[in-house]
Amino acid sequence: MDFLSPELLPALENYALAHSQEELPVLKELDRQTHLRANKPRMLSGHLQGNFLQLISRLMQPKRILEIGTYTGYSAICLAQGLTENGILHTIDNNAEQESITKEFIKKADLEEKIKLHLGNAADIIPTILTENEEWDLVFIDADKPNYALYYDLVFDKVRKGGIIIADNVLWSGKVLTPPNEIKKNDKSTKAILDFNQKNKKDNRTFSMLLPLRDGLMMAIKE
Protein backbone atom coordinates (compact mmCIF):
# COMPACT_ATOMS: atom_id res chain seq x y z
CA MET A 1 0.00 0.00 0.00
CA ASP A 2 1.29 3.46 -0.94
CA PHE A 3 0.93 5.89 1.94
CA LEU A 4 2.66 8.89 0.35
CA SER A 5 1.84 10.41 -3.02
CA PRO A 6 5.00 11.38 -4.97
CA GLU A 7 3.74 14.94 -5.44
CA LEU A 8 3.58 15.37 -1.66
CA LEU A 9 7.18 14.35 -0.99
CA PRO A 10 8.78 17.83 -1.13
CA ALA A 11 6.18 19.25 1.26
CA LEU A 12 6.47 16.22 3.53
CA GLU A 13 10.25 16.59 3.68
CA ASN A 14 9.78 20.19 4.78
CA TYR A 15 7.26 18.99 7.38
CA ALA A 16 9.75 16.40 8.63
CA LEU A 17 12.44 19.06 8.95
CA ALA A 18 10.07 21.38 10.80
CA HIS A 19 9.29 18.64 13.31
CA SER A 20 12.85 17.40 13.81
CA GLN A 21 15.67 18.63 16.01
CA GLU A 22 16.88 22.09 15.03
CA GLU A 23 20.03 22.17 12.93
CA LEU A 24 23.05 23.14 15.00
CA PRO A 25 24.05 26.78 14.29
CA VAL A 26 27.55 25.70 13.22
CA LEU A 27 26.03 23.27 10.73
CA LYS A 28 23.64 25.87 9.39
CA GLU A 29 26.57 28.20 8.81
CA LEU A 30 28.62 25.41 7.23
CA ASP A 31 25.76 24.63 4.85
CA ARG A 32 25.66 28.26 3.75
CA GLN A 33 29.43 28.58 3.39
CA THR A 34 29.61 25.33 1.44
CA HIS A 35 27.14 26.71 -1.09
CA LEU A 36 29.18 29.91 -1.34
CA ARG A 37 32.69 28.48 -1.38
CA ALA A 38 32.73 24.83 -2.50
CA ASN A 39 32.13 22.93 -5.70
CA LYS A 40 29.10 20.61 -5.93
CA PRO A 41 27.32 21.78 -2.74
CA ARG A 42 24.60 19.15 -3.26
CA MET A 43 27.15 16.65 -1.92
CA LEU A 44 26.51 18.07 1.57
CA SER A 45 24.54 15.68 3.80
CA GLY A 46 22.11 18.39 4.86
CA HIS A 47 19.79 18.86 7.82
CA LEU A 48 17.55 15.78 7.63
CA GLN A 49 20.26 13.23 6.84
CA GLY A 50 22.63 14.98 9.23
CA ASN A 51 20.09 14.60 12.03
CA PHE A 52 19.73 10.92 11.18
CA LEU A 53 23.49 10.34 11.32
CA GLN A 54 23.65 12.23 14.59
CA LEU A 55 20.80 10.11 15.99
CA ILE A 56 22.58 6.85 15.10
CA SER A 57 25.80 8.08 16.66
CA ARG A 58 24.06 9.23 19.83
CA LEU A 59 22.35 5.85 20.15
CA MET A 60 25.62 3.96 19.69
CA GLN A 61 27.90 6.30 21.66
CA PRO A 62 30.88 5.08 19.61
CA LYS A 63 34.49 5.30 20.65
CA ARG A 64 35.87 5.11 17.11
CA ILE A 65 34.22 6.33 13.92
CA LEU A 66 35.62 6.18 10.40
CA GLU A 67 34.27 8.42 7.67
CA ILE A 68 35.40 7.85 4.09
CA GLY A 69 34.65 11.03 2.18
CA THR A 70 34.78 14.26 4.18
CA TYR A 71 33.70 16.93 1.69
CA THR A 72 33.37 20.06 3.90
CA GLY A 73 32.89 18.21 7.18
CA TYR A 74 29.12 18.47 7.72
CA SER A 75 28.53 14.75 8.27
CA ALA A 76 31.70 14.42 10.36
CA ILE A 77 30.46 17.10 12.75
CA CYS A 78 27.07 15.34 12.94
CA LEU A 79 28.59 11.94 13.65
CA ALA A 80 30.99 13.34 16.23
CA GLN A 81 28.08 14.49 18.41
CA GLY A 82 27.64 10.95 19.74
CA LEU A 83 31.28 10.13 20.47
CA THR A 84 32.26 9.02 23.96
CA GLU A 85 34.30 11.42 26.08
CA ASN A 86 37.57 9.99 24.76
CA GLY A 87 36.18 9.04 21.35
CA ILE A 88 37.65 10.02 18.00
CA LEU A 89 36.42 10.28 14.43
CA HIS A 90 38.86 9.75 11.56
CA THR A 91 37.72 11.24 8.26
CA ILE A 92 39.47 10.74 4.92
CA ASP A 93 39.30 12.76 1.72
CA ASN A 94 41.55 13.01 -1.32
CA ASN A 95 40.52 16.56 -2.27
CA ALA A 96 42.62 19.23 -0.59
CA GLU A 97 40.46 22.05 -2.02
CA GLN A 98 37.98 21.74 0.86
CA GLU A 99 40.63 21.38 3.58
CA SER A 100 40.49 25.00 4.75
CA ILE A 101 36.70 25.18 5.15
CA THR A 102 36.65 21.73 6.77
CA LYS A 103 39.26 22.65 9.37
CA GLU A 104 37.62 26.04 9.91
CA PHE A 105 34.29 24.47 10.88
CA ILE A 106 35.76 21.61 12.87
CA LYS A 107 37.37 24.34 14.96
CA LYS A 108 34.13 26.34 15.17
CA ALA A 109 32.36 23.18 16.35
CA ASP A 110 35.03 22.78 19.05
CA LEU A 111 35.86 19.32 17.75
CA GLU A 112 39.56 19.66 16.96
CA GLU A 113 40.38 17.03 19.59
CA LYS A 114 37.73 14.62 18.32
CA ILE A 115 37.95 14.83 14.52
CA LYS A 116 41.16 13.92 12.70
CA LEU A 117 41.29 14.78 9.00
CA HIS A 118 43.41 12.60 6.70
CA LEU A 119 44.17 13.78 3.16
CA GLY A 120 45.05 11.18 0.55
CA ASN A 121 43.99 7.87 -0.94
CA ALA A 122 41.51 6.16 1.38
CA ALA A 123 42.58 2.66 0.32
CA ASP A 124 46.12 3.45 1.46
CA ILE A 125 45.14 5.29 4.65
CA ILE A 126 42.46 2.96 6.08
CA PRO A 127 44.83 0.09 7.00
CA THR A 128 47.19 2.48 8.84
CA ILE A 129 44.79 4.08 11.33
CA LEU A 130 43.96 1.44 13.93
CA THR A 131 46.29 -0.59 16.09
CA GLU A 132 46.02 -4.39 16.04
CA ASN A 133 43.52 -4.56 18.92
CA GLU A 134 41.36 -1.57 17.97
CA GLU A 135 38.04 -1.78 16.12
CA TRP A 136 35.59 0.56 14.46
CA ASP A 137 32.20 1.09 16.07
CA LEU A 138 30.72 3.03 13.17
CA VAL A 139 31.81 3.52 9.55
CA PHE A 140 30.28 5.98 7.08
CA ILE A 141 31.14 5.53 3.40
CA ASP A 142 30.44 8.56 1.21
CA ALA A 143 33.26 8.75 -1.31
CA ASP A 144 34.02 7.67 -4.90
CA LYS A 145 31.32 5.20 -5.88
CA PRO A 146 33.47 2.77 -7.93
CA ASN A 147 35.42 1.98 -4.75
CA TYR A 148 32.49 1.44 -2.36
CA ALA A 149 32.92 -2.35 -2.37
CA LEU A 150 36.67 -1.99 -1.83
CA TYR A 151 36.19 0.32 1.17
CA TYR A 152 33.56 -2.03 2.61
CA ASP A 153 35.96 -4.97 2.38
CA LEU A 154 38.87 -2.96 3.79
CA VAL A 155 36.98 -1.99 6.95
CA PHE A 156 34.79 -5.03 7.55
CA ASP A 157 37.17 -7.17 9.59
CA LYS A 158 37.99 -4.17 11.81
CA VAL A 159 34.34 -3.37 12.57
CA ARG A 160 33.31 -4.76 15.95
CA LYS A 161 30.44 -7.18 16.34
CA GLY A 162 27.32 -5.03 16.57
CA GLY A 163 29.10 -2.21 14.76
CA ILE A 164 27.40 -0.40 11.90
CA ILE A 165 28.49 0.40 8.35
CA ILE A 166 26.49 3.12 6.57
CA ALA A 167 26.88 3.93 2.87
CA ASP A 168 25.43 7.05 1.25
CA ASN A 169 24.00 7.63 -2.26
CA VAL A 170 22.93 4.03 -2.77
CA LEU A 171 19.86 5.11 -4.77
CA TRP A 172 22.17 7.22 -6.94
CA SER A 173 19.58 9.80 -8.01
CA GLY A 174 17.29 7.00 -9.16
CA LYS A 175 19.82 5.56 -11.61
CA VAL A 176 19.61 2.21 -9.79
CA LEU A 177 16.30 1.68 -11.61
CA THR A 178 17.96 1.91 -15.03
CA PRO A 179 17.68 -1.42 -16.92
CA PRO A 180 21.15 -3.03 -17.11
CA ASN A 181 21.17 -2.92 -20.93
CA GLU A 182 20.56 0.85 -20.84
CA ILE A 183 23.45 1.76 -18.53
CA LYS A 184 26.18 3.49 -20.51
CA LYS A 185 29.44 1.57 -20.80
CA ASN A 186 31.44 4.39 -19.22
CA ASP A 187 29.01 4.85 -16.30
CA LYS A 188 31.20 3.10 -13.74
CA SER A 189 29.49 4.73 -10.76
CA THR A 190 26.00 3.39 -11.47
CA LYS A 191 27.35 -0.11 -12.11
CA ALA A 192 29.38 0.07 -8.91
CA ILE A 193 26.40 1.15 -6.80
CA LEU A 194 24.24 -1.65 -8.24
CA ASP A 195 26.96 -4.20 -7.48
CA PHE A 196 27.48 -2.75 -4.00
CA ASN A 197 23.78 -2.98 -3.17
CA GLN A 198 23.70 -6.60 -4.30
CA LYS A 199 26.83 -7.32 -2.28
CA ASN A 200 25.15 -6.00 0.87
CA LYS A 201 21.93 -7.88 0.18
CA LYS A 202 23.83 -11.17 -0.08
CA ASP A 203 26.23 -10.63 2.84
CA ASN A 204 25.07 -13.07 5.53
CA ARG A 205 27.54 -11.59 8.02
CA THR A 206 25.29 -8.57 8.51
CA PHE A 207 21.70 -7.47 9.00
CA SER A 208 21.22 -4.75 6.39
CA MET A 209 18.55 -2.38 5.17
CA LEU A 210 18.39 0.21 2.40
CA LEU A 211 16.63 3.36 3.58
CA PRO A 212 15.10 5.74 0.99
CA LEU A 213 16.35 8.78 2.91
CA ARG A 214 17.61 11.57 0.66
CA ASP A 215 19.72 9.73 -1.98
CA GLY A 216 19.53 6.40 -0.14
CA LEU A 217 21.41 5.04 2.86
CA MET A 218 22.53 1.43 3.18
CA MET A 219 22.87 0.37 6.82
CA ALA A 220 24.50 -2.90 7.83
CA ILE A 221 24.92 -4.19 11.38
CA LYS A 222 27.75 -6.70 11.76
CA GLU A 223 26.45 -9.87 13.39
CATH homologous group name: Vaccinia Virus protein VP39
CA-based shape: globular
> Which sequence of SSEs, written as H and E, runs from N to C?
HHHEHEHEHEHEHEE
What is the highest CATH level, the class?
Answer: Alpha Beta
Largest sheet, strands/sense/barrel: 7 strands, mixed
- pLDDT averaged over residues: 96
SS elements, strand count: 7
What fraction, in percent, of the residue positions are helical? 25-40%
The third-level CATH topology is: Rossmann fold
Question: Which stretches are low in confidence, meaning pLDDT under 50 for 5 or more residues running?
Answer: none
List the total number of helices: 8
Protein model, in words:
One of its GO terms (biological process) is methylation. Keywords: Methyltransferase, S-adenosyl-L-methionine, Transferase. GO terms for molecular function: O-methyltransferase activity; S-adenosylmethionine-dependent methyltransferase activity. With 223 residues, the chain is of the alpha/beta class. The chain has one domain (6-222): 3-Layer(aba) Sandwich (Rossmann fold), CATH 3.40.50.150. It has eight helices and seven strands; from the N terminus they run H-H-H-E-H-E-H-E-H-E-H-E-H-E-E. It has helices spanning 9-18, 25-37, 46-60, 74-80, 99-108, 122-129, 148-156, 188-202; strands at residues 64-68, 88-93, 115-119, 136-141, 159-168, 206-211, 217-222. The protein has a seven-stranded mixed sheet with strand order 3-2-1-4-5-7-6, sandwiched between helices. Helix 3 packs parallel to helix 4 (74-80). The longest helix has 15 residues, at 46-60. The chain is globular. The two termini are 31 Å apart. The model has no long low-confidence stretch (mean pLDDT 96).
